[in-house]
Request: fold
Amino acid sequence: MKRYILTGTPGAGKTAILRSLEYDGYTVVEEAATDVIALRQAQGDPAPWTKPSFVDAITDLQRRRQERAAALDGRVQIYDRSPVCTFALATYLGHPVGSTLARELERIRERRVYEREVLFVRNLGFVTPTEARRIGFEEALRFEQVHLDAYASLGYECVFIEPGPLADRVAAVRGRVGAV
Reply:
């Protein structure tokens, strides 16, 4: 089974690409950070990303989702972000890389969990903030570079999915990952 990471700048259209791929029969494994933010906000924490425990919560949820997905059928799985993205997020937020994230980065490296080719969705030239995405375009560009640096530092190759119509972006992903 091949496991591809789809990542990129916040607000780049990643979710639309993933929904289209899922609709076409690809196994899509959801992002963890947005769900951790939503849960913690519902529990009364308006800015959970300000706490270092946020990184561990994302890492734990990502690992559980990846392990559950390992039991699914399918030749190709598409992951909405990865522990490398969590490493980039920790770096961007100024949080330490704790033992939970360090162990997970080592596990995915040793077990070669993900393909080395990462599908990196380029920004659309703007960002629409949401409750979970409170970031402007300039910040998103800085975050994009932190992601690129994180993947490069861990030996991954980013393949860019350039801006354009959704159908073209989905076709570019399919061209890289192959058929369902």
